[in-house]
Amino acid sequence: MKSRKGTRPEKRSSHVWGNVVIEPEQTASVSLAVTESYSQLTIPIPVVVQRGKEDGPTVFVSAALHGDEINGTGSIRALITENQLCLLKGTLILVPVINILGFDRHSRYLPDRRDLNRCFPGSDDGSLAARMAKIIYEEIVGRSDYGIDLHTAAVRRTNFPCIRGDLSNPEVDRMARAFGCEIILDNVGPDGSFRREATLANCPTIVLEAGEVWKVEPAVVEYSINGIVSVLTELEMVDGLRSDPPFQIVIKKSKWVRASRGGFLRFHVSPGDLVREGSPLATNTSITGVENNFITAPHDAIVLGMTTLPCIAPGDPICHLGFIDEKHKELEKLVKKLPSDGLHGRTSEQLSTNVSVVEPMPHQTLDSPIE
């Protein structure tokens, strides 16, 4: 996919929001009108703006661009109410819910059935989604130098915390590594996505993918806050500590392993697990337990995400694998030494609570046929 240069939105002051002016060392709650209701009522999204003592970069942190992905909303809320950041330089723009219409309906999409995260940079005379995207793009990206957008997996799936970004951009690469996740997925993002268009418009932006929809999961919140603070530390906006993950790997190729037959899954892996080519991912059985087929990894990989729904039809996604070409054995040894009560172990355990993970049967070996 060819890269292109995006159009930078008109630069807006991060300190002035309508009639509200945020002075150095102040925090203010403001609102951004994004659309109108059927009865012509203005519909705003809440924004918290924190300004440091000295000038510096402006960073936005956003969540619920898909309205049902509220792990990020809970993380930003915790950042506001519990973390009490002492901002030394620059400005922090916190947007706990972007897609307010989807959020109010517990839905990924807008009422016009469009995906807001495919409509950037938006337009003045397009669909509801395009018009909202235009306002958000101009008012958030137009005030910012960097961005962090918090997401989860889609419905009936879960993701192990993973940073996604276009690492060919040096500042995206810098932020992605500073965030401190073990896994970084290197890609430019879909056409029309918020982080792709923001980065093209010279506002380097990364995405955290972590957890499930409709939940605020403690380990995901911990990952999110640690990562945000780590990026702000890297940018010298706070006097904090960089997150130091036990390992960090860049994934350039990933694949969803899909079902070839209908059935009922017995899972053998959890999110974040390392798997070797040919190792067991799941067993597909009938609902009475008769084995249909055995599903194995097509490549040395790490489990980026997986379905949480054991009932499958042909073509349904089962497991999202990030391919690892080197250092797999080294990573295996390292991961085995990690404490089970550490963040990595706790996250893997929490994210797999909605699936029954069991050891494969003795006859299911690495030599078993691959689906």
Automatic annotation (TrEMBL):
The UniProt record lists the keyword Hydrolase: yes
Residue intervals of the Succinylglutamate desuccinylase/Aspartoacylase catalytic domain: 55-232
Pfam families: AstE_AspA_cat
Keywords: Hydrolase, Metal-binding, Zinc
A GO term for molecular function: hydrolase activity, acting on carbon-nitrogen (but not peptide) bonds, in linear amides
InterPro entries hit by this protein: AstE_AspA_cat (IPR055438), N-alpha-Ac-DABA-like (IPR043795), N-alpha-Ac-DABA_deacetylase (IPR053138)
UniProt key word Metal-binding: yes
Cofactors required: Zn(2+)
PANTHER family xrefs: BLL3975 PROTEIN
Protein name, UniProt field: Succinylglutamate desuccinylase / Aspartoacylase family protein
Organism: Rubinisphaera italica
